[in-house]
TrEMBL record:
Highest taxon above the source species: Eukaryota
Descriptive protein name: TIR domain-containing protein
Organism lineage: Eukaryota, Viridiplantae, Streptophyta, Embryophyta, Tracheophyta
PROSITE patterns for the chain: TIR
Domain TIR span(s) in chain numbering: 19-176
SMART domains associated with the record: TIR
PANTHER family: DISEASE RESISTANCE PROTEIN (TIR-NBS-LRR CLASS), TMV RESISTANCE PROTEIN N-LIKE
Pfam families in UniProt: TIR (PF01582)
Signal peptide: none
Length: 176
């Protein structure tokens, strides 16, 4: 279930397409849900930014839901938290394809965050991304156009100017 702040949407900016969310967060839960992404969400919420962050229960199936597509389409900005296991999730990859589609057709802003991963790994699908696509090619053998679409989406998002976050650089020291 998504949480929203209690602030009303700003009426100073007008959009031709209805937007329900200021930001849509796309992330792989196991990698960052209770780490970077939860802190980012809390900071955005504290500043009155209406942010869509899915709930783990929404991911009960492998097929991306219509409600999630509506949340993507109804968002002004996207923050994609790309992490080591992001490419293993067909759900995350479908989100990314739709996010890039909205960027192109609706001129929406995308801010990629490379969380503990180098953009070149994402761009060239090396390391864990290569392993993920080995599995996808077997699992989705009859749907290779989908796998190709995912590969192209990752290569494209890695070209965007983004933020690099390394958890080790930001570790919290104990208080004395």
């Amino acid at each position: 279930m998504a949480s929203t702040s209690s602030q009303a949407p700003s009426s100073s900016v007008s959009y031709s397409i209805s937007t329900d969310w200021d930001v849509f967060l796309s992330f792989h839960g196991d990698d960052s849900r209770y780490k970077f992404t939860s802190h980012l969400y809390a900071a955005l919420d504290r500043h009155g930014v209406r942010t869509y962050k899915d709930d783990p229960e929404l991911r009960s199936g492998e097929v991306i839901s219509d409600a999630l597509f509506q949340a993507i389409q109804g968002s002004k900005t996207y923050i994609t938290v790309l992490s080591e296991n992001y490419a293993f999730s067909p759900w995350c990859l479908d989100e990314l394809v739709e996010i890039l589609n909205c960027h192109k057709t609706r001129q929406r802003l995308i801010i990629p965050v490379f969380y503990n991963i180098d953009p070149s790994i994402v761009r060239h699908q090396l390391g864990s991304f290569s392993k993920a696509f080995e599995k996808h090619q077997i699992r989705f053998a009859g749907k290779m156009e989908k796998v190709t679409e995912w590969r192209l989406a990752l290569a494209e998002i890695a070209q965007f100017s983004g933020k690099h976050i390394h958890a080790k650089r930001y570790s919290i020291l104990p208080l004395s």
